[in-house]
Predict the 3D structure of the following.
Amino acid sequence: MTDFAAEPADILERLRELRTADAPTHGGHVLSYVYDSGMAELDELAASAVRMVQPVNGLDPTTFTSVAVLEREVVGFVRDILHGDSDVVGSVTTGGTESCLLAVKTARDNWRQRGGTGEPRLLAPVTVHAAFQKAAHYFGLALELVPVDSITGAVTASALIERFGADVALVVISAPSYPFAGLDPVAEVAAAALAAGIDCHVDACIGGLVLPFWTGLPAWDFAVDGVTSVSADLHKFGYAPKGASVLLHRGRDRQRTQYFATTRWPGYPVVNPTILGSKSAAALAASWAIIHALGTDGFARLAASCERSTSGLLATIEGIEGLRVVGSPVGPLIAVTTDASVEPARQVDPHHWADQVREHGWLLQLQPSVEQAGGTRLPRTTHLTITPVTEGVLTELSAALMAAADEVRGVPPVTPAEVLGALPPLGDNALDSDASFGLLTAMGLGAGGGLPERMAPLLALIEGLPAAIAERLLTELLARLVEPVG
Ligand SMILES: *Cc1c(COP(=O)(O)O)cnc(C)c1O
């Protein structure tokens, strides 16, 4: 047995040391996962708020009444900026995934209350966030992923509407989608859903606190009739620490179905709007404090900075020979792929580019090519999320993006065949934990606990392997990371 006991100073010293190995959460060098307002005082305020509610149990807002006040005010703020009337109500969840899960569960239960039986369908473009795949899996819906244009990543309203039917419990569209930053055709889809009596969720997890302040957008929120729920993450462009999102529904009765309530056990009555029981109020309190500190003007100012930086980066990337921006991005996200209109020697593979940009000190996110229903392939891309802190480093970042492209222009993409050829034969047996670990080790992955320096070959492997095998191997990789040593 390890003796875990240590002195507080040593414990914190060790944590400090572990944290130095992390990707930097501040300064704008990581263009995904972290949302840096660039305002140190906002982080300090959030930390103070977290400390104040640290011992609170958010499970019971009748015992810890502060929790109800914080949640009411956060929901009210988000409802206002998303043009919700007084019939729009909601809750704070622990994150985008929980908001998406609950949007699906609520729609499924309302569909059943309207008389639906059997397995309902969940309808969405293939670009919808993976959280909806998880929701369909958890809650027993048949997920129907509708193909998008394989060049622009855009879905047409008619492609969704023509699949409507009495068994559709929910249609989900995004504002914008994470992979390609496309703003789905909310007005057309929501109007048709309303006419068909189908619930319509707008996933604004990433856009919800920034698009309200973006210029030149069509209506996409509760201003559109037929939109029945919206998710918006506080821990993205709400600049809050992780663990906070808002899920809003139009109509009290629709929202009440989200709750789980039971008095049928010998303990305290359980009445939960969200998935967890006992829960932290930390991210809620931090979100609340940040909202009051920024106000709508503060959010607008930060969004304007994101918009300027995004325009600047779009111009930079569009000027790079061999690369192309996918579709017409809306909001502070960009997906970049190869410009296939130039000769191969002038093309830039987005994954080689991302790996090379990393050599310059910036972390972009590699997204694999996937085949969609109908057989067409969506391009492999590299993703950038732009935050307020980007503006201060825009010149350096643009220079790195251009230099890296020059360095890998003409380098052929890693093909799945290349990486698959290097693999030991995959037996017929289902991969168990040891076999999976053996394969990972043979690929030079997982043993030291880390990922390779260059990610392009790993992404090519994900593209080339049958999805079930890639998923099994990645599960093993992640699971081994947290296995106790020895
Ligand atoms: C981030 C995101 C989610 C999921 O959110 P998590 O907070 O990571 O759980 C869902 N949808 C979209 C569009 C997102 O960008």
